[in-house]
Write a structure and sequence with these properties.
single chain, 138 residues, alpha+beta, three-stranded antiparallel sheet, two-stranded antiparallel sheet, 10% strand
Amino acid sequence: MPSGPSGGDVPRPIQQQYDQRSAQGGAPSSLVRPYAVTKGRTKPKSELPLEALISATPTARDESGTLTPEWQAISDLCREWRSIAEISALLRMPLGVARVLVADMSEQGLVQVRTSLNNDARPNTNLLERVLSGLRKL
């Protein structure tokens, strides 16, 4: 971390790539601190497992011009089903931020959420093993 004028550490903003298909050849569109994107919230309003699959709804596509840059990036990315972990990795945003944003979008009807929870609220072991294997390959 860089040192400030008084010798203390100065926090660096986290670089977030919101639009991977930007006209500038994929350059990041802004530098934003994670807590600013989530308005200071660290936990989503509804619990979402990391392996939950997310897909943009037609509502999100219809409102594409009015969405925040973060929501627009998630909507564009989720034209195909993606997990929250994938959204976080592909948009280069912290996992907690992705979970809060996706939960907010779900509440607004902008995304569909599919979870793998069984009736007894325990995750599917086979799915978790596949997710873990995929994460190790990254």
